[in-house]
């Protein structure tokens, strides 16, 4: 990664500097996205669901009252330019808008705002082996809050994801699973979760989880394949008794779950999970 897009132009990464009193550094006042990009079979660039991601970036920024001085189309174009300028094959794009200098307290009305885009090559987020055979996850004590702001990707909100992921890793697991404040299954530290039982697919209903863009894509794929998909409250017992369980996310893509704490789930990567994953990647590449 040599070039980043910062406040309207591509610059050397070394020049992309912020002050130590940047508001977002102290208070987490940033809106961000994570976007995968792939190469189609013909070699052309496919930035997956780019419009949906940038729309959500603007939505989150509006929640924080961050003014992005560019149009959605201009930010989309900048994402493409950042990938192309860095001669990247397949990987990840991180657009971020944040408050800079101004207030040293909580009032941001006089703070500057900035927008940056970074891109890098990135393989399987939870490992190639995990993608094929399934990963091990553990339920952590930290709960996901049920909030009307769950649709926003605010930097400061990710403190619980960081704590959960680190706790899972310290115990030898690949990822964490969080419940909501009512004790129902919510999501991973950065992934939505799906359950398959007797050929039927379910996923936690919205409330304490980010309505992921990949989550929506997988629901669409599953329905196109004739599967029944239900959004509902899911108990931990239901999860552990499932035939198949998998994570979805921009970074995680579609990753099967082979073990939840001490409970083994089916044979790891189940047949329906593989079918959905294969169709997901087929659509990306065509």
List the helices and strands and how they pair.
Layout: E1 3-6, E2 9-12, H1 23-27, E3 30-32, E4 35-39, E5 45-47, H2 50-64, H3 72-85, E6 91-99, E7 113-121, H4 128-133, E8 135-139, H5 159-170, E9 175-179, E10 185-188, E11 192-197, E12 200-204, H6 213-224, E13 229-232, H7 236-240, E14 244-249, E15 253-260, E16 263-264, H8 271-285
Parallel strand pairs: 8-9, 8-15, 12-13
Antiparallel strand pairs: 1-2, 1-7, 3-6, 4-5, 4-6, 6-7, 9-10, 11-12, 11-14, 14-15, 15-16
Helix pairs in contact: 2-3
Short précis:
The chain is α+β, with helices and mostly antiparallel strands.
Mind explaining what this structure looks like?
By secondary structure, this protein is α+β, with helices and mostly antiparallel strands. It has two domains: 3-121, D-amino Acid Aminotransferase, Chain A, domain 1 (2-Layer Sandwich); 128-285, D-amino Acid Aminotransferase, Chain A, domain 2. 29% of the residues lie in helices and 29% in strands. It is built from eight helices and 16 strands. Strands 8, 9, 10, 11, 12, 13, 14, 15 and 16 form a nine-stranded mixed β-sheet that branches. Strands 1, 2, 3, 4, 5, 6 and 7 form a seven-stranded antiparallel β-sheet that branches. Strand 14 and strand 15 form a beta hairpin. Helix 2 crosses helix 3 (72-85). The model has no long low-confidence stretch (mean pLDDT 95).
């Amino acid at each position: 990664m040599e070039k980043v897009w910062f406040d309207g132009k591509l610059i050397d990464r070394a020049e992309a500097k912020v002050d130590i009193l940047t508001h977002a550094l102290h208070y987490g006042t940033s809106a961000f996205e994570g976007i995968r990009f792939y190469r189609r079979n013909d070699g052309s660039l496919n930035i997956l669901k780019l419009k949906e991601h940038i729309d959500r970036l603007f939505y989150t920024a509006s929640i924080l009252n961050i003014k992005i001085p560019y149009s959605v189309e201009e930010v989309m174009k900048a994402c493409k330019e950042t990938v192309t300028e860095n001669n990247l094959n397949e990987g990840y794009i991180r657009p971020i808008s944040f408050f800079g200098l101004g207030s040293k307290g909580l009032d941001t009305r006089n703070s500057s705002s900035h927008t940056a885009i970074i891109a890098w090559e990135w393989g399987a987020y939870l490992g190639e082996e995990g993608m094929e055979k399934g990963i091990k996850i553990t339920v952590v004590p930290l709960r996901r809050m049920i909030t009307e702001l769950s649709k926003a990707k605010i930097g400061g909100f990710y403190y619980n994801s960081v704590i959960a992921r680190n706790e899972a890793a310290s115990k030898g697991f690949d990822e964490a699973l969080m419940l909501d404040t009512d004790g129902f299954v919510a999501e991973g530290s950065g992934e939505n979760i799906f359950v398959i039982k007797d050929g039927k697919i379910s996923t936690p209903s919205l409330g304490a989880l980010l309505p992921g863009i990949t989550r929506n894509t997988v629901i669409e794929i599953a329905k196109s394949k004739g599967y029944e998909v239900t959004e509902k409250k899911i108990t931990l017992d239901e999860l552990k008794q499932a035939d198949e369980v998998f994570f979805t996310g921009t970074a995680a893509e579609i990753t099967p779950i082979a073990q939840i704490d001490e409970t083994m789930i089916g044979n790891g990567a189940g047949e329906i999970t593989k079918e959905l994953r294969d169709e997901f990647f087929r659509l990306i590449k065509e």
